[in-house]
Amino acid sequence: xxxxxxxxxxxxxxxxxxxxxxxxxxxxxxxxxxxxxxxxxxxxxxxxxxxxxxxxxxxxxxxxxxxxxxxxxxxxxxxxxxxxxxxxxxxxxxxxxxxxxxxxxx
Length: 106
Fold this sequence. Notes:
The protein contains two helices and four strands, in the order ββααββ. The protein starts with a strand and ends with a strand. By secondary structure, it is of the alpha+beta class. β3 (about 80-90) and β4 (about 95-105) form a beta hairpin. It comes from Levilactobacillus brevis.
């Protein structure tokens, strides 16, 4: 996949561009039952649940790669104003969305 710039800023210094439209990348992930049991036990004693932290980190990377592919499919050179949104589905699934504005350099 071609690397295109993905930035959280509104402007790309030194670039003039036209807006192509909204792009997004989505993923929903879950851990297996054994990991969920381990997480439940950790919830009792407190502290970071590393399996879930890793799952969310992986989900963010997947969402960004899907956002990039969506932008490439639109003919974009970059994505500006990228943001993340996430939420739980039930008790053991997590959904992550990366979204932004695809732009084409002039």
